[in-house]
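Follow-up to my post from last week.
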Amino acid sequence: MRRHLGALVLVGPLALFVALFFLWPLATVMTQAVADSTVGQALPATSGAAPDWDRQSPPPEELKAALVEDLRNLDNRQLFGDIVRRLNSVQPGFRTLMGRTMTAISRADGPVDLSSVDRRWDDPVYWRAIVGVLAPYTDRHLLAALDLERDGAGAIVPIPAGESANRTILLRTFWVAAVVTVACAVIGLPYAMLVASVGGWLRQILLAAILLPLWTSLLVRTAAWYILLQDRGLINDALRSVGLIDAPLPLLFNRAGVVIAMTHVLLPLMVLPIYSVLVAIPKNLMPAAASLGAPPLRAFLRILLPLSFRGLLSGSLLVFMTAIGYYITPALIGGPQDQMISSIIAFYATGSANWGMAAALGVLLLAATMVLYIVYGWLSTDRTARA
Amino acid sequence: MLRIARIIFGAAAVLFLLAPLAAILPMAFTSSVFLTYPIPDFSLRWFEELFTAGAWRRSIINSLIVGFGTTVLATVLGTLAAVGLRGRFVLSGSVRTLFLLPMVVPAVVLGVGMQILFARIGIASSYLGVIIAHTVLAVPFVLVSVTASLDGIDRSVERAALSRGATPPSVLLRETLPLAAPGVISGAVLAFATSLDEVVLTLFVAGPNQRTLARQMFSTIRENISPAIAAAAFLFIAGTILLALLVLLVRRRFKAPAPETAAEA
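User reply:
Got it. Predicted complex:
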């Protein structure tokens, strides 16, 4: 018991710190993704009166009076427009209804009888729509992050083409991450095999070549690729001096540059897991296969490749998982057509202060990352259990 | 045939891995205003710019302040937790996984959450906010490093001290921590390096007065790239090598098993 108390005292500070400054921010993102307080704050009296109504019977006079009061106090035209638009998307007819009601309220000084302004105010359908948009939670942002919305009947439908590019950006994020993962695998698998097959100083050099970039600042590596990839950079200069090209290849601010730089940055994450699996393979396995008469290629395909598969899978998951959340490299090396989901989240958050959309896209990215991480964790524990 | 292919592939891969680093270092000493080769003349003008121009100088000082704060906070929190998690108790595995999670969560998502939350609790655009944000990312490195170091300690030393009547806190201070020192120091160095290189969270939580060197480099590359970037990169790389040497020296002195945290980075 005493021992546990001691452990608690030692672990406690970090647990508190992580809860406060890691879990709480993530929880904030999640609530922000579904929170919707704009209408509730714009119509405070209506929000207060709404819970007393059973949503079936004709709307009570208190609710009507509350709405009149709120609309009279609402002097923000843009906010009013937003509310009407949202009501109209739930229940068509609100545009004319609200316009007529606003005019009546602005003409009168005292109480306004809504039923005499428009018969529709006696219909509970319209009030249900109002109560609906007053709710503090919404799936609007999450749907919008996938280019979906709800139509008048509440069914989920795609947003008209051309209005939003979120789905394009999500697909692009996964596509770029997949291309980078494949590129890392194509270079990383033979590289790891090469490192594992040599010994002595050669292995030290090959390992240093993979670890040195890993220890170097991400910004430095990205800046270095900027220098190499630009029109008058070393790659174009070299290709021109050999006579392969006449005009410089465009490598900066496009997809090719992003893939090259991200492959370089993430390659160690592929090589190290494969290497760690390969060095654990008994040294005499390949000679044993050869002594049993297996030709080298066959021995490679039947023994080394399947054994390195687990490392390849771990490495691929690690690279893909890291790549989908990448921000700095695409932001600096890519053009407008190469921005990934992180850039869009940053744009919504810092550029246009649209917290709902930033948070909704963030929740999607977080969910994708966590799923991949759980698979990765499951793979690595399985491996140690077998070893 | 296969042998030649292996040599060519190996050489090409090493070139791909190291060429960027080799390309940026000489640029720090160019006299030109362009980041192109060949370098017209050797010059230290960009280092001068780095240490005299207001924005750069300020950012270097900010990086040192934030880096120092992060190192202290992350090392204290991480070391205590690593010692506490040593004795296996209920949930210690899940707790450890939770503590390492900041390495995995996309920085942009965490950044959005911190920006909203920090504004609400009043530490947005403050040194404290930036230090806290960096510490969240740096703690896992300390935890991994110290844990590896503690695993190599023979616990009979501590048991002997306890049986002689020493109190648990004094055993921690006099026996455990000195034995774990290599891990603690490696962890502290990694924490400092993490803070130095952090950009994304800084973008979200720092105000104009807390611009760090990495943040300044980010906007310089984005807006008007100049060889000052290469000079800053040179400082980064030189700093990294110095810190790596320091870690090596410490490990050699203590001759304790070295934690391998690189794969997790």
